[in-house]
Amino acid sequence: MKIDILKKTLTEAPIIKKGNYDYIIHPITDGVPYITAALLKEVTTAMHKQIESCGHIDRIVTMEAMGIPIATALSEKMNIPFTIIRKRSYGLPGEVSVEQVTGYSNSKLFINGLKKDDTVVIVDDVLSTGGTINAVLSALQKIGVVVKGVFIAIDKGNVAPAIEKEYGIKIHTLVDIEVVDGKVIFKR
Fold it and tell me: 96 - beta bridge partners?
């Protein structure tokens, strides 16, 4: 799996402190300074290869905001629709509210358009504290949505094994990193 552009851009990305949290400002995680077509193609091509092992899926699911470019490109490539779990309520029948707690914020997410027995994969930009993915997996489980896998570009948090164990769902990542002394270190 070739992810040279992703690795190079991660080593060049600025890192800022948000409290005790090391926040990497990167095109895939923030859209800053911009997402190049080559970077997005590299990430989605690698994710697509991973997703193929899931078999049939009805939908790609992502969370607002930075999963949207990834889900859009995958949807087009795989000819599968995608659903965005949004940061605003629409008050539609069946809407499910999710409390999201991350390393640097608390907010609500709202799930619309998913129902019992829908078969999905979740895609997102980064896994840090696990707050978002835990909340979403819990809500989807309550709805009865079948999640065939979670696909993340950047794992920064060392929380995937605990989440996998809790939900019985494999989390696939393209790179596993940590920030040490203000620098990105690749664990694999």
Answer: 111
146 touches 121 (CB < 8 A): no
Q: Which CATH architecture has domain 4-186?
A: 3-Layer(aba) Sandwich (3.40)
Rounded Cα gap, residues 134 and 137, in angstroms = 5
Residue-range domain boundaries for the chain: 4-186
Which of 55, 43, 50 shows the shortest CA–CA distance to 6? 43
CA atoms within 13 A on the CB side of 34: 3
The residue to which tokens 């049939």 are assigned: 56
From CA 52, how far away is CA 61, in angstroms rounded?
15
Q: pLDDT tens across 120-158, in order?
A: 999 999 999 899 999 999 999 999 999 999 999 999 988
- Model pTM? 0.95
Q: Which helix (H) or strand (E) holds 95?
A: none
Rg of the chain (C-alpha set): 16
Contact indicator for 60, 83 with CB cutoff of 8 Å:
yes
